[in-house]
Specification:
The chain is α+β, with helices and mostly antiparallel strands. It is built from seven helices and six strands, in the order H-H-H-E-E-E-E-H-H-E-H-E-H. The strands form two sheets. The chain has a four-stranded antiparallel β-sheet, sandwiched between helices. A two-stranded antiparallel ribbon has the order 1-4. It starts with 7 loop residues before the first helix and ends with a helix.
């Protein structure tokens, strides 16, 4: 588990690694376009691609509202996310739909977006992040069922393979969402 995204030791190590990478590519780090690049890359990586490792899904879903008489299904569509492919170290950008079937505890709508952020701002596959979201809802919220759909454009697919219009769609279903087509229809709408 990584420390805080603003950890100066980690940020410095990333900066040195980027410096070494650019040097290995034969680039002049004093060129006007590259001055300061290692520091900028370290800041972006720490804040945007690695900060999810410091986030705790149990804490994100903690302090739920008691949901006596809760709705049959809670669905939030259009949750934006971005991540970094661990195979090529190239970004992907998309949106998620998250649903859960409450037992007696409700999470705030914004917490569902925070949960997506927690698992996508890690060096991880989209498929794994999708699974991690639903597993967290079951484990930490006690949901009777959970589902997540992620749609994203991956630069690791579009740049090397020239598939610029391709969209990757992943889905994960647990509990009652796995067997109830009426609930699945609301998530996949």
């Amino acid at each position: 588990m990584l420390g805080s995204p603003s950890d100066p030791d980690r940020s410095g190590a990333i900066e040195r690694a980027v410096t070494a990478l650019l040097s290995a590519c034969g680039l002049d780090l004093q060129h006007k376009d590259l001055v300061g690049t290692p520091g900028r890359v370290a800041r972006v990586w720490s804040a945007e691609f690695l900060s999810g490792f410091a986030m705790d899904p149990a804490q994100i879903l903690g302090d739920p509202v008691e949901g006596e008489g809760a709705s049959e299904l809670v669905v939030v569509h259009g949750l934006p996310f971005h991540g970094l492919c661990p195979h090529h170290l190239l970004p992907y950008i998309g949106s998620a739909s998250v649903a859960y079937l409450p037992d007696n505890r409700l999470a705030g709508f914004g917490r569902l977006g925070d949960l997506v952020t927690c698992f996508t701002r890690r060096l991880t596959l989209q498929e794994r992040a999708c699974n991690d979201v639903v597993d967290a809802l079951i484990e930490h919220l006690g949901a009777r069922g959970a589902g997540c759909i992620m749609r994203a454009r991956h630069t690791c697919l579009s740049v090397p393979d020239n598939k610029h219009g391709a969209e990757v769609v992943t889905s994960s279903l647990r509990g009652e969402l796995r067997t109830r087509s009426d609930l699945q229809a609301l998530l996949f709408a």
